[in-house]
Description:
Largest sheet: 7 strands, mixed
Low-confidence stretches: 548-552, 643-647
Structural class: alpha+beta
Number of strands: 21
Mean pLDDT: 88
Radius of gyration: 35 Å
Distance between the termini: 111 Å
Amino acid sequence: xxxxxxxxxxxxxKITRRGLIVGGAQVAFVGVLGARMRFMQxxxxxxxxxxxxxxxxxxxxxPPARGQLFxxxxxxIAENEPSYRITMVREDAGDVNxxxxxxxxxxxxxxxxxxRALNEMKRSAPFLPVTIADRITWEELSRVAANAPALPGxxxxxxxxxxxxxxxxxxxxAGYVGPVSQRDLDRIDDPDQLLRIPRFQIGKVGVEAxxxxxxxGKAGAKRVEVNSVGRMMxxxxxxxxxxxxxxxxxxxxxxxxxxQARLGEESASVVVMDLKRGDLLSIYSSxxxxxxxxxxxxxxxxxxxxxxxxxxxxxxxxxxxxYPPGSTFKMVTALAALEEGxxxxxxxxxxxGHLEVSxxxxxxxxxxxxGHMNLELSLRESCDVYYYDLALKxxxxxxxxxxxxxxxxxxxxxxxxxxxxxxxxxxxxKLRTRGKEWVIGDTxxxxxxxxxxxxxxxxxxxxxARLATGRSITPRLINTVNGIAQPSGAGEDxxxxxxxxxxxxxxMFAVSNNRRGTAYGSRIIEDAFRxxxxxxxxxxxxxxxxxxxxxxxxxxxxPWERRDHALFVNFAPYDNPEIAVAVVVEHGxxxxxxxxxxxxxxxxxxxxGEDPPLTAYPSxxxxxxxxxxxxxxxxxxxxxxxxxxxx
Length: 647
């Protein structure tokens, strides 16, 4: 059937519209395709070129040089030394066992280290280098380099490793580095890619750990061209990393070394604090250990020796351990009473040898009693009953308030490990932590630094520094970071009555300089350097009735670990205080016999800056001191050795 002209025209119009739609769609598709091709070929050309290059180009991290640690005078505490090692990249090596077999003909491989390396390869990304042999000789490094074509994935390297030239003097302060572990990575939210490198050294304890981010630096990178078996052919470009910051401590390494020699293997600790800025001139825990043994992983035998030693060389006793402060706490109780106005320095308390409180007798260390005691006499002769009486008058809350004002019962902000807060108890604290009500006997015990009261040697040094100056001095361990001075710890005025402080200081002076003072035997007779101090004995056991009946109460009759701790605190010179010193001798017995002589020697060494003249000592002590100085000189490095360690 023939179509009419109108139908033919209508059909042609429909075909034309459909053609235009299909043609438009085709043009649009070609346009989009062309735009996409241009985007990929022009705009993304560099990215696709890089993807192609990854078949022959590797990007490798360059570990930065770790920042060094120095003492206040520039002596090196922690440095970096060249270390020759052999690394392997698993994805480049191919058959790892075959390559290791070839390598073992050139270098003697330790079985334990090799097994450790193989395990690290399994855990690590295939492109990360793993250390196969560390601390090899130059000759061994050369043999590996000469046989490089037969050792795919193997690279001889010259790296840096940590070294502590002053050994155990700064082990608890500087700390040490060690191979990064999974535990280290788990503690960090977003680990630096450097930490993914197996056996990369990271700070474990002390300043090394607390200043890890500052000391580590920033990684560099290099692009290298490799052949089909992964052997590096050439280095294409390199971006150097940023070295870690150098950190200068406030500690004087000569004084630190003297303290180390003076304490020997005694289980003890010493803190020496500058009274101008709060600088820690010495902070030493004895016995110590060699941190160099930890750098590449300490052996099981060496670690077991340190772990099982009953003198606990791994513990940083100066900040980590908290002891009952004993009679060194009496200045806190006395000052609290003076500030509250409940006593004057002239008021007396009769000491018959005990004070009965709530049907319980609290004994004085002198069983026969001291008689009538005022403030100065009570500190000079360390009468306990005087402070029992003060405790009943002012209560635990005022005692604790004063203790915290003097820097006790708080965690001081210094970059050492496991810094203790100590304990200055309150009624609420006991109810909250022990589930028991506070009783008056708790206050009586606290007044002489026993019972619940705990403090570290650092707390005792800060307390003494604040008593000597009346300022809120805070301890300062970091002097500069990359040459930039860190904030001072000089502190502000505590707002205490200066007359009350003078009375406390005068009483402390009598402790060391009056014939009846408990530390008179360890006095300094050089007028310019006379010290004011306080002895303390920290009871570590409860004496049973049976023991008391047998007379087994003397420290000399007890095993070492059951003897009392010996404490001594002091500041000097008395007329113009420069330093504060705190000494704790674990299980040393009495503070006057064990701790005070050490504090006197350390104080003089700090003030003179060298071995003090014998004329600074009482004549009766000079022969013994002469022998001691000679022995200690033999244990300490010479001035020439000291100059070699200076930066």
